[in-house]
């Protein structure tokens, strides 16, 4: 009866949360600049009687909202940053709202709002029927640069949690039983000596060093563990061809199956950078921008979240939703649709529907995807359960204009309320009758982390690139 009350409450009150997700979608803000989204969520939570801690981890747009007392402490994780260059109307042709503006192509307008909806529903319920325990909503900025939660984790924000729950907008209803890659984001800076290019023998080119470093890294590819990924861009290649560049820089993403592998890879890449500096008589330094852990799957919590679908029921989409999905999918070539499905191990699933309403059957082991998330960091501090729900059509890849359109449409909003229900019911069960599940989740966590303490992959003095 109580679970049904929560589901009903979320149905009855969904308009205010759809309105919030819509407003955040209409005001897209990139990593560390999410002032509007953070304020919107804080205001509603405060109005609903939550106590708020701001500036968590020295991030002006990070906050924690809490109600209740004592253990268990259940964390619900939200995000709200947008992506640069993905501005798009809620339409089926590519049409920017603002030229080169940001857009919610990863659906974080929905991600955070579902968490807010879930905790407000829970508070409403437990006020009438009090229990011992704490519900916390974490407003986490800057997921798209893989570091908001890392800075919050470094400050100890997740340390006293008994577990955390999260979700991500997707193209299916499923538990996230796959690992993500660990990652180090690092920029290398070379300093040489400028000279007129016609007397280049007098100069020492920082750009030469960057190019030699990148060549060295490309040769390294053959000698790394399978699943390792090395990506780079040149962030500064000099000013003009007739000036030997005295400053040049290159920015790397290093990925691997886990933290240990990425740390070892990083050591080798540092040697390559030093070699390039030696060859060109330049100096090199580097700055670590982000360091995310791989996602440590917790089967116990995933099973708990999966189970809630029985009380929540299937998603429902209208003919209009289907027509919108169909038209959007037509704008994608079949290869990118197929690759999008393959990336999430969904190939061959949902071949006859564009908007899945039921959950995909439970798989305990889903392998690994190449991408990374700072959710990985939290999953090495406390057990984390995660699901995805249908917020866009099958085959639409994240980080595309089609995804931005979907996440601002009724399809996205329906998927968001569905996720809010799954999260609210899971947290309810943990608070009311979750002792055994929590013990099991913790035992599984200890086994998977082998008892190793979480050590942030960013140095203790690294500051987030926030505007002050
Ligand atoms: Zn993303
Ligand atoms: Zn995302």
TrEMBL record:
Keywords: Hydrolase. One of its GO terms (cellular component) is cytoplasm. One of its GO terms (molecular function) is dipeptidase activity. GO terms for biological process: folic acid catabolic process. Pfam families: M20_dimer, Peptidase_M20. This is Amidohydrolase. It comes from the Bacteria.
